[in-house]
Batch of 2 targets.
Target 1
Amino acid sequence: MHPQHAQALAARRVGETVTVDGTPLCVRSVAHDDRDRLSRLFARLSPQSIRLRYFSPIRQLPDAQLTRFIDVDHKCHELLVALSGDEIIAEARYDGVCGTGEAEIAMTVEDTWQHRGIGVRLARRLMVLAAERGFNRFVASILPENKAALGLVRELAPSVSVRWDSGTYVATIPLASAS
């Protein structure tokens, strides 16, 4: 392995520490050994949080979804996690097709950690990474009752474009506002 590649992998694994309400959290890219942590995060979500995130009342994440979450290339697909101790309390991901300029963004924040700024921090970091990797916009599908997500996209980019499409809002977030 090339030394620079090894350093980049080590940096992704170590991450950075952010403080939320006096609690230190580690924010880093997902790792293959995060599968069980992601599954436990999902198990701690309320039915309402699950429905707002997955648009469905699913009881557990299918293995294929967990595999998709942890098997990212850190270019066209990325997933960041925030950990309190050894537990993932939030995740934010983008999925795109390299070269198209557009990627879908989605995130989950554990109920007890919601409305504390974690989602905004993860999304901003994800925006910077995506912009560095050639993307120029995120697209998010949001259920109409998810006022928190609608507020988050407006906080991320006041110039966000939001349109109604088949029962959901579709927000187009320019990454030029990433900072």
Target 2
Amino acid sequence: MLRLAEQAFLPSRVVATTATAVAPLTTAPPPLQAIASATSRQSRIGLNATNFFLAEVGGVALPFANNHLRSQGWSFDEIGMASAMAGLGVLLMQVPAGVLVDRCAYRRGLLVGASLVVGICYGMLPFWPARGWSVAGMLFLAGVGHAFFGPLLGALALGLVGYERFNRTKGVNESWNHAGNLAAAVGAMVLVSYFGATAIFCAVTLASILAVGAVLLIRPAELDEARAAGLSSQAAEGLAPPSLFSLLRDRRVAVLLASTALFHLANAPAMPLVAMDVKHLGGSDRQVAAVVLVAQLVMIPVALAAAWLCDAWGRKRVLAVGFVALPLRIFLYSLAQTPATLVALQTLDGIGAGIYGVAAVAMCADLTRGIGCFNSLVGLLAAALALGGVVGPPVAGIMVEHLGFAAAFQVFAAIAAAAAALFVCGMRDTRRSVGSA
């Protein structure tokens, strides 16, 4: 099955540039003939499997954590505050995580540690006393570990295959990531049916251990550590890369960060709210799991298509589709009257999230190509996402508690519309600044 899966998702040949082949921003990228070596099948399998199992670690944990706390007598606003602690952990650690990944030469070991931290925290949640700050502390620590996932996965992909294959490889990685979320949702439905919700948290811990094994499949000798940070050969030889703050002077970076922050302010509370609304409307735990399943099923082909379209259309056009899909989806939630309708609307989530995971990282690679700070910018972008994860859930909890689900969805739909308008009107395509990828 592993061979069949690889044939379905992997490029037939992933090639890597050497550090000397990476060009600075002002020059065109090297021709494909200059690419020096192929990445081994073992490393490709390891990278894809890592994406798969890390997705399982966080795929369904938070919605079921919210429902677990509800079953313990917590109010909606208390649940929102607890969920925000996971986002706060990500927010506070995301930029330091990106900077550390840029400067760390042991990226595989760092990912092993982060995976175990997140898996253990969620795995212990149902056995932990359901008291305010003890649960909040556990979720905060899980968020700290989760902050390392994005920068490390992007760094490993770039270090293995180089820029010429980065978009396609990232698309494949994201497809495996969404497949992991899909497997987590299917597994959650089965586990809930036969063993109860507690079994889901135990499965999260198991997935974190399997992710460690997958990371160790990646051959360290095939990782170009300088390229993994976005450095050119000149920078790797001692020319200091720009500071992270200097990147903020680029208007494209500022617009990308601002629109992303608004995007996730609207998006972060959406899935937990949908999961709670499903239960509020009389839905089952299986339908709660289906909230994740339906979205991930759509994300797999969308991520693969987005990787190709980023090269064919340009990054902005592709990412704009994801931005525009979000306000439409959240507004339609406010009109839903049945759990089945809410589950069906999750197909639109698959479009937006499937595109974002590929196109946004492609923009980061463009903006830092040859000058370094790639992982720092990925971390900064993820921090913008995490800001929404901190602010959104408690606001959503308060709104639902006092105004109801429909009003909460309509407010977040308006915020999502503002994010789409800012991106579409203010962002320029990054591909033209560095030539063809």
